[in-house]
Amino acid sequence: MNKQNDLLKIPESQIDAIQNIVRPLKYSSSSNLFYAGQIPIVAYLLLDGLVHFTKNGKVVNTFSRGNVIGLKELMNNQPVDVDAQIQPGTKVCFIDRSTVLNILEQKVPSTLNKVINKLIRIDSTIR
Amino acid sequence: MKTPTKCEKCPSNSSGIFCELSSLEHEDVDKHKVINKYKKGQTLFVQGNHPFGIFCISTGNIKVTKVGADGKESIVRLCHGGDIIGHRSLFTEEHYTATATAIEDSEVCFIDKNFILKVINEKPSVSLNIINKLSTDMGKAESKLSSLHQKNVRERLAELLLVLSTSHGKKQEDGRTKIDLKLTREEMATMIGTANETLIRFISEFKDEKLIEQVGKTIIINNEEKLTEWANLPY
Hints:
The structure holds two protein chains of two kinds. Chain A has helices at 12-21, 71-76, 97-104, 111-119; strands spanning 24-26, 31-34, 43-48, 51-55, 58-63, 68-69, 83-86, 91-95.
């Protein structure tokens, strides 16, 4: 596992905070979250299981619990250069653009606001 | 940072659900949407996945398919510029009951559930446009169901060609209509509920009768009047 993935990890307390806003969902089968060249349509907070980033069919990175992927790309209309494949049994929270904008527009910034503000500056595809 | 295409400049804006919004309201949609290009064969969503918004097609063609217990795929709907997809599952809070795949390079906008529900609550024109699209889809589904029950394969094929001519037809200078959509024989067969071989046989019959012409995968309708007769359309 890539050590730089820790930069995309959020603290346990903030995982709970996000779960209070968006309902977690479980994927029963493998599926593509996004393709290379596309902007992710939502960001994903991993609660359980794995998401693989692949390039030309090869796994280039793997994410696990606490990782938030696709946030910077979603908010900056920035395409990713990898495919993201979610593994069967993986539990995720979908964080859509409206939810992020609501968090960022808070008049009194919460810890979650600060965490999101930090994550928005980090590429999901760092290797 | 890439600047997304603005809704006001979308080639399908006039037939889309946001067509009656003001410039300022369009800007709000622009702020919340994610615009993506899907290559031929890429999926927008897969049957069984969770819906978290709607997809508005800007350009291109998308097929909506269902996979049966036997693993066979059938096309239930073809969507093009101005159409929306994924809205039914969004409102019923069910998982997607079908898969959406680009049948050619397409540009599609995604609008998240929170935002679209807010817009529906605040803008009656958007709600009415969605109801209009749902009603049109329901009408097409009812027609398809009755055709499957009451018509033979030849009539169903004639009807399909007329439907495609209305939705994807381009009138040529010589008066003929070119269907600007490249579907495989298998895809066309699933749309009228028949076997590949049967479809091929009837396409040959239509060609022999000079009703249609084929250039590669492209179909050109030569005689729409006769095709309408063959389709046995109700008045």
